[in-house]
Amino acid sequence: VAKFKQIVNIVGGAEERKRGDEWLAKVEVIDEVPSERCSKLTGPKIKEQHRIIFGTADSLKYTTTTSNIAYVRSAHQKGVKSSFYLHPARALTEQKARGFSKANPFL
Fold this sequence. Notes:
The chain is mostly helical. The protein is built from 6 helices and 2 strands; from the N terminus they run H-H-H-H-E-H-E-H.
């Protein structure tokens, strides 16, 4: 949750932050309990964060909603197949659309 908030607060605009807060109010945060098979995955496309997120869903038999096709493909190639829903990646663009930049953050 902290990482999600950090990303939204850094690059999201006011409406994106509002939608992020609304979404967080609807989700249930669960303990991290990664499966053994996901915990053992290694490779350039598999980070610790991925092992925790996808591994927890795997151990609980949940479907993961993700745009991270690189992890899904890498895990699949290593024989770890899990339930996932793949969605298109979307960038937070509200600040960019308003002309925000690191050089001039007050536009």
